[in-house]
Design goal:
This protein is mainly α. It has 11 helices and no strands.
Length: 304
């Protein structure tokens, strides 16, 4: 079997580095520049509209994200890893959740937000709610069997996107806060995958492929929302001057939501790929070893 160690170790390193650079770029563009601050704040302020039904749904989504609920999910995640006899994945899932949420709180405290847009807002990047939702969803995908990971990723992406957009709708966060949170979680995801592969006894595992059930909807979402977000922000920037205090903008709101959806879809696609890579080969070898042991015990083959 071909040794895939360099590629299997290089992939998480590259993804992790890109996630870190993406977080820094998001902070620089949307916090340290006038146009970025203007568009980001205009998107947040533009959600102040009368839509009782939508507001009710988003409020329920936010209220459902409690610390107790997240802790419970984490306990279940660890239990699944133990039941599957994959304690390494259980530990990795716990490290992912704790590391991502700790990093988000650290960045939120140390990063500053200069009042370029003449508004004395404190820094809110990255979003804690989005980090919590995404990190738990990533952990669930990691510990589940490969057969259901695509479905779990799709459900997790939908839940995370709802949480992220709800925080903007409630004017708790700007779109860039959610984007940075997703990149922080992806970075920690890549780090724990690297750790899992470094500590794995089998360094030549074959590459598994995520199911199209999860890949296609996520890919289509990204392909539609990414250009929509880019065009929307360009239109919003061209329609208003950047020298005054940001005004609520419906175009910026729609563009921000599309941008969040695109980043969520992209990060979950990358995570599904990283989490699935190599699992199929390991599972096959475990089944072969188990069948051989059973045959030895029944005397159908002679143990050497």
């Amino acid at each position: 079997m071909t040794d895939m160690t360099p590629r299997r170790l290089g992939a998480p390193l590259v993804v992790g580095a890109l996630a870190a650079l993406g977080t820094l770029a998001t902070y620089h563009v949307f916090v340290r520049t006038i146009s970025g601050q203007w568009l980001d704040t205009a998107a947040m302020l533009g959600t102040d509209v009368e839509h009782p039904r939508l507001a009710q749904i988003l409020t329920r989504v936010l209220n459902g994200t409690t610390l107790a609920g997240l802790v419970l999910v984490c306990v279940v995640v660890v239990a699944v890893g133990v039941v599957r006899r994959r304690p390494g994945l259980a530990v990795a899932a716990a490290v992912l959740v704790l590391g991502a949420n700790g990093t988000t709180q650290f960045l939120k405290d140390v990063l500053t937000r200069p009042p370029i847009d003449r508004l004395e807002f404190a820094n809110s990047l990255p979003s804690g709610h989005t980090t919590a939702a995404a990190s738990v969803a990533f952990a669930v995908v990691l510990v589940l069997p490969e057969a259901v990971r695509a479905t779990a990723a799709l459900c997790g992406a939908g839940y995370t996107a709802a949480i992220a957009i709800a925080t903007v709708w409630s004017q708790w966060h700007r779109p860039s806060d959610a984007v940075a949170a997703m990149l922080v979680v992806l970075g920690w995801g890549a780090l724990v995958i690297l750790g899992v592969r470094l500590t794995s006894r089998d360094r030549t595992a074959a590459t598994g492929r995520p199911s199209p059930l999860g890949v296609l909807p996520l890919a289509l979402t990204g392909l539609v929302t990414a250009p929509a977000a880019a065009l929307g922000f360009l239109a919003a920037k061209a329609s208003e001057p950047m020298t005054t205090t940001p005004e609520p903008s419906r175009i910026a709101v729609a563009s921000g939501a599309a941008g969040i959806a695109a980043v969520v879809a992209g990060t979950f696609l990358l995570w599904l790929w990283l989490a699935t890579d190599g699992e199929r080969g390991q599972d096959v070898r475990r089944k072969v070893a188990s069948a051989r042991s059973a045959a030895v015990e029944t005397g159908s083959i002679r143990s050497t």
